[in-house]
Design goal:
single chain, 204 residues, alpha/beta, Rossmann fold, 5-stranded parallel β-sheet, 4-stranded mixed β-sheet, 31% helix, globular
Length: 204
């Protein structure tokens, strides 16, 4: 095992824990895909949570600008699903703090808990388990910047871009593995539908 897990090592963990599955899946967006990934299934196991989080922290520390601000750095995640990664990265880096955004109902925007507000000029790395469309990460970035924080990086365990993935411009993006799933429009354009493979609807 490398100090920073390589692509093959990460994918092996995902497959062994059932986090990465192959088949014919329909996402809530309507897109069909040959792969479905749930990183939290791998993060159930302490040894893998530790391996993946520490590996991601080492990628971040390799950036001298981020390494220089670690004592003042905040690790922030959208929703609670990214907390195992965020706490693991914070512990390994010895960063200042972890906090997260949330929403009470799906139609509501992300918000911070009462009395929890970023400070003006606070330097932040946004952390999550996966980047697919990037919609929640972009929403969190906007929320942080509206409160005066400075987002200095985006770090995820898995980068799995889709045709709808947003661009984060020049913001540094760190990830342990990139998965190139195939995506299809539902119906006649879906090669998996044409092959008659059973369809399973999944949650993001």
């Amino acid at each position: 095992m490398h100090l920073i897990p390589n692509q093959e090592e990460v994918v092996t963990v995902l497959r062994e824990t059932g986090a990465l599955r192959e088949g014919h899946f329909e996402y809530p967006t309507g897109l069909h895909s040959n792969e479905y990934l749930q990183v939290p299934l791998a993060m159930r196991y302490y040894q893998y949570q530790r391996m993946l989080s520490v590996g991601l922290s080492r990628l971040l520390r390799a950036n001298p600008e981020i390494r220089a601000i670690v004592p003042q750095l905040s690790i922030v995640t959208p929703m609670t699903g990214g907390l195992p990664v965020a706490y693991g990265v914070c512990e390994a880096m010895r960063a200042q703090q972890v906090y997260w955004a949330e929403r009470q109902y799906d139609a509501e925007p992300l918000r911070f808990r009462q009395y929890l507000e970023p400070k003006a000029g606070e330097q932040v790395v946004i952390v999550d388990d996966i980047l697919r469309t990037g919609a929640r990460l972009a929403e969190l970035k906007t929320l942080l910047e509206s409160r005066g924080a400075t987002v200095v990086g985006l770090a995820v365990i898995i980068y799995q871009p889709t045709p709808q993935t947003l661009s984060f411009g020049s913001l540094p993006l760190y990830y342990l593995a990139k998965l190139e799933a195939r995506y299809y429009a539902a119906g006649a354009e879906c090669a998996l539908c044409k092959r008659g493979l059973p369809l399973e609807k999944v949650w993001i």
